[in-house]
Specification:
507 residues; globular; 29% helix; 4-stranded antiparallel β-sheet; 10 helices
Length: 507
């Protein structure tokens, strides 16, 4: 009897221990907090993760020790501002287990986001390699520059962790760095000599609506239609997919026959049937999985290169892009951090209207800057390979907006115009050290009367202004500059930055 009682008690003890082991979970920091990470200097630094309910968590770093207790399986502590430091340090996170994070630097952290022109890696060879890519990679030995690379993912619900990791910039890893982000970070590092952290979150071909929180879209009367369309597509998708599956075999048989007939007749080959596209990730789905997991990581700001996918929706973009920026700022809770974006580079099939929509955002959203790429395009390629000037100009903008340097950070921008006889006098801001033509007479200007029939114009620099005229237009009314899918211009300021295209005939 005594033996049976002892066996029963031993069994209960083992069962309880097993249950407790299953309930308890090791402390796990978000993957942003892993080896080689860069912490933003000079601001409060949130550190967070998961752990067992009620588990005490203690974070130690740079002489600070902060503790908290996990609630609902999650925890967060805040470190007080830390000075930049290029000497690798160790962070420890102590719960029921100990997590040690090594080779941690403190410096400047920037999110690098957008679509394909931001996603294009330094070592990517398609569709064209980055200009001088191999030479750049061979020189890319910057152990104080690190990148946290997020994989493409879309979700209809908020994602807690991107499950990525930090990599050090060296000649082996540099090929995987965003090219624009690398040139941006390299220039900041060479100027400030502090560690640079790049959070790389980009996805080619994605419109801005997918990077904007769904609740923000739904709450805006001008953008709610995006969510409505997504909801309808999500509802119809299973039906359309099932129907396609039933008809797929017959469709493919017919396609083979039609292809053969077209080939014999020397006609265009018909498009192969494909399943309906899964709408997953539309209307905020990329924000959920590629931006939300970063919140509230301490950052200095954002660089952004996107808009090509919105080129046919420029009026909507005027509302959407500011809404996206404001939503990011609100959700990160770090004030109106600098948001710097690249002008959409010229391309033969891309209307200048999308660049105008970007200018609208620039005028309406504070603490933003736009790096002009008007001289960096490729008429035959929506992915121009010349990424160096884009990163360099974004770095110049960062120095002005984020670091308060008194430098000129953008090319000449239209301010106002005045009709003087048969000429139109253009006044510019951001003239810097003065206006200049890079080669010969100024080009890229057009002029029109009230009929809006534009003709090429003669343009002459007069101090910090430009006089525009055409002998056949005696009563000029409107001016355009660089207003084409792929314009040619040569007006710069003496700081080396190209003038920004504009038009005055806006209805």
């Amino acid at each position: 009897m005594i033996k049976k009682s002892l066996k029963f008690l031993l069994g209960c003890t083992l069962l309880t221990t097993t249950v407790n082991l299953k309930v308890r979970a090791n402390v796990v920091p978000n993957s942003l907090f892993t080896n080689n990470m860069v912490i933003q200097q000079g601001v409060k630094v949130p550190i967070w993760g998961k752990a067992s309910e009620g588990e005490k968590i203690t974070v130690s770093f740079a002489g600070q020790t902060v503790s908290t207790v996990a609630k609902q399986g999650k925890w967060q502590v805040n470190l007080q501002p830390i000075k930049a430091n290029s000497i690798p340090q160790k962070m420890s996170i102590q719960g029921d287990n100990l997590v040690e994070i090594s080779n941690v630097l403190v410096g400047e952290v920037w999110i690098c986001s957008g679509q394909s022109n931001m996603e294009m890696a330094l070592g990517k060879s398609w569709p064209l390699p980055v200009t001088n890519a191999q030479e750049e990679i061979a020189k890319a030995n910057y152990p104080s520059i690190r990148q946290y690379s997020i994989q493409r993912r879309a979700s209809d619900t908020l994602v807690w962790d991107a499950n990525a990791s930090w990599m050090i910039c060296d000649t082996a890893n540099a090929k995987n760095f965003t090219a624009v982000g690398y040139f941006f970070g390299r220039d900041l590092y060479n100027h400030f000599h502090v560690p640079i952290g790049l959070i790389f979150s980009a996805w080619g071909g994605t419109p801005a609506e997918r990077w904007t929180p769904r609740d923000v879209l739904a709450a805006d009367t001008g953008l709610k239609k995006i969510v409505d369309a997504y909801n309808q597509a999500a509802k119809e998708y299973p039906i359309e997919r099932a129907k396609y599956k039933e008809e797929e075999k017959a469709k493919l048989v017919q396609w083979v026959a039609d292809t053969l007939a077209a080939s014999l007749a020397h006609k265009t080959i018909p498009k192969k049937p494909t399943p309906p596209a899964n709408p997953l990730g539309g209307a905020g789905g990329i924000y959920n999985s590629m931006i939300h997991p970063l919140i509230p990581y301490a950052i200095k700001g954002v660089i952004w290169y996107q808009g090509e996918a919105d080129r046919d929706k420029s009026n909507q973009y005027k509302r959407l892009f500011p809404a996206m920026i404001n939503a990011w700022r609100t959700n990160f809770g770090q004030g109106q951090f600098p948001f710097l974006f690249a002008m959409i580079a010229p391309w033969m099939n891309q209307s200048p209207l999308i660049r105008e929509a970007q200018l609208f955002t620039l005028s309406k959203v504070p603490n933003t800057a736009m790096a002009s790429t008007i001289d960096c395009g490729d008429s035959a390629n929506i992915h121009p390979p010349h990424k160096q000037p884009v990163g360099e100009r974004l770095a110049i903008a960062a120095r002005a907006l984020a670091y308060n340097e008194k430098i000129e950070y953008v090319g000449p921008m239209y301010s106002s115009d005045k009709i003087v006889g048969n000429k139109i006098e253009i006044t510019y801001t951001h003239v810097g050290k003065g206006l200049e033509s890079k080669s010969g007479d100024l080009i890229g200007f057009a002029i029109a009367g009230v009929d809006k029939k534009f003709v090429p114009a003669t343009a002459v620099i007069k101090g910090n202004k430009v006089d525009v005229s055409n002998p056949n237009i005696s009563n000029p009314k409107y001016v355009r500059f660089g207003w084409a899918n792929f314009p040619k211009i040569n007006l710069y300021n003496k700081d080396g930055l190209p003038a920004v295209p504009f038009r005055t005939d806006i209805d």
